[in-house]
Amino acid sequence: PYNINPLEAGFPGYVKFHKPFFVGRAAMLEAAATRSREVVRFRLNEPGARALRGGETVVNRRGQYIGRVTSCTLVGTTQIGMAIVDRRYTEPGTAIAIYPTPAGRRGPSAKPPAELAEGDKVVLPEWATVLTRFPEEEEKAAAKGFFPAPE
Predict the structure, then answer these.
(1) Which of 55, 63, 82, 149 has the fewest CB atoms within 10 Å distance of its CB?
(2) What is the DSSP string of 6-17?
(3) 55 DSSP 8-state letter
(4) Which helix (H) or strand (E) holds 128?
């Protein structure tokens, strides 16, 4: 549903532009020239937040839409996930906010209610931080405590 190509997914080394022919070469060259988004890894800043799902909205510090969550999982008490976002927000340490979709309104096409009445609940953002593309050594060590190696 997100139409992510190998360049956006972080695998440009697997697309060999120097080869004279491969299926999809013209499309990949065009995608490389016009690429505006990239998959990033993120971690929620607060433990114990409601579980995030694919398709939830990602915004920058000013509240501008920049992308969507593609996946998320729980590691210990912290959620770590992936999102496809505008390339301007891919630097590790960048603050992003994710709006969890209310229960019963999930999915990439879910939209907020058009009108609110007094007493209605609104969704508050979950703040997250963009991480490096691949886990650092201390993250790997921490994860080992939660997922022991098979014997």
Answers:
(1) 149
(2) TTTTT-GGGS-T
(3) T
(4) strand 126-131
